[in-house]
Every structure is written in structure tokens, then in C-alpha cells.
Amino acid sequence: MDDFETLKRYIEQTLKIQCSSYKEDYIKRRLLSRMRSTNSADYGAYLRYLKTNTPELELLRNALTINVTEFFRDTEVYDAIKKEVLPDLFKQRKRLRIWSAGCSTGEEPYSLAMILHEMMALHKDLSAQILATDIDLVVLNKAKEGIFSPKAMVKLNETQIHRHFDKLPNGDFQAKPHLKELIKFTPNDLMSGVPVSRYLDLITCRNVTIYFNEKQKDDLARTFHSALVADGYYIMGKTEYLGRAVDGLFVAKNTAQKIFVKKEPAKTV
Ligand SMILES: C[S@@+](CC[C@H](N)C(=O)[O-])C[C@H]1O[C@@H](n2cnc3c(N)ncnc32)[C@H](O)[C@@H]1O
Hints:
By secondary structure, the protein is an alpha/beta fold. It is built from ten helices and ten strands.
């Protein structure tokens, strides 16, 4: 067994991450980034480093799962989006502008597009646009293609698959044009302080800030606050939180699902 195989086996045993479910090229790219950061010359050196530096295990876990996503990730959040957030926003205006920030391979914006398409089919006067962004151009291009393996489709029911995807000859599934038309994919660095757009009604930024320090997270919350309309919604990942310095910018609307609404600063008279 070569050093790469030994390292993979060690990762599978200690982190319980099935390396074999990923493409080898993906695992190698992620390992190389950690090897550079730890000055490890090769896979063998990195394995030795990993065995003697416990904190590196968590950093490696984050590196390996950085692009991980799925359709309707955390079902309850999407239930709340469908039953609470979107109906509330559509009460205020007929056209919504949504930002899926850190969208990875696109499952998040496509999930939102499925919900929106079904609402819009029932109410013809409603419309929406989703701006989906990521810093990683490889995943963003994949998201744009909208092609998903059968494994990626497990959270979708037969009706959703049939309604929103075409089956390709090789067994993969491609998002139908009516979903793609709702989404515009663009690169954006969430650390740049420049929002992809303004006057947004909803921003979802979920499971993105694991590498951000406290200041970067606070700056991001301020950027989102400035990009939202009054009463616009901001949805975070379930394990993410608003820092003390910025929690006054938003009001919790659904604490369990990390759904917030923009709060305007108090007016001074
Ligand atoms: C774990 S995925 C989350 C995908 C999706 N939001 C979800 O919850 O399933 C995190 C994504 O954030 C992106 N990301 C990390 N840092 C970023 C940054 N500074 N600007 C934009 N995207 C970033 C990564 O490229 C990755 O695709």
C-alpha cells in the first residue's frame, strides 16, 4: 500500500469520512492544501504530522468537507422557508430577489428554485430571481451545469425529480430550464465586503463561515445587513451564530432554524 492509500485509510478510520465516495482528484487537492499549510513534503510526512498534532484532524475534516452540500440540507429549514419565510416576503412584494451565498455545487439554490417554482405555478403574478455565488470556480461551474449524480438526488422524491430534472443517457440528472432560468451563478468572495447585489429580500449563507475568524464573520453580517431590504431575511447554517458585536443588526424569527430578519438601527430624534 502506498503512502496515499495509508493516509486515506487513516482518515477513514479516525474521521469516519469515506474517502472512496469522493473523486480521487478532489481528495488530493484538499490534502495538498493541508500539506502546504503544515509544511509536509509528501503524504507520508503529512500522516506523521496528523498523528502527532490532534488539532490538525479538525482542520483536515473542514478541508475535506468544504464543498459538501445536498438538496434540502436540513429539511426543517426548508420547511420554514416554504411555509413562513417566502409567504411572508410574497405578502410584501410580488418579485423576490434572493442570494444563495457560498452555494457550492448548487444544491442550495436549486432547492430554493424548486420551492419557488411550485409557489409561482400556483400564483402566476409572483416571480423571483436567485443570485448564487461561490469563491470556488470549479464548484460554481458544476453548479451552472446543473448535472447531478443519482447519489446526489436521494433527498428528492419522485415527483420533484420528474418535474424538475431530465434523466441523461449516462444515468445522471440535469436541472430543467425552468429551474436554471431562476438562478444566476456568479463568482463572489464573501470576504471582499462587496455584496453581489443590494435590495435583496432573502440571503441564505449556510455552512460557509467555518474558516472565518470572528471579525470576518461580523463583517460578513454587516455586509448582509447592508444588502438586505428593510425586513429582509438572513438564514445561517444550524451550527453558525451571530457574533455579539452584530447580533443587534438582526432579530431572530425562528431561533432553532437560525432564521433572522433585518433590524433597522433605532432612529435618533
Ligand atoms: C460546505 S459548502 C456549503 C454549501 C451550501 N451553502 C450548504 O449549506 O449546503 C461551503 C461553500 O462555501 C464556499 N466558500 C468558502 N469561503 C468562501 C468565501 N470567502 N467566499 C465565497 N464562498 C466561500 C466554499 O467554496 C464552499 O463551496
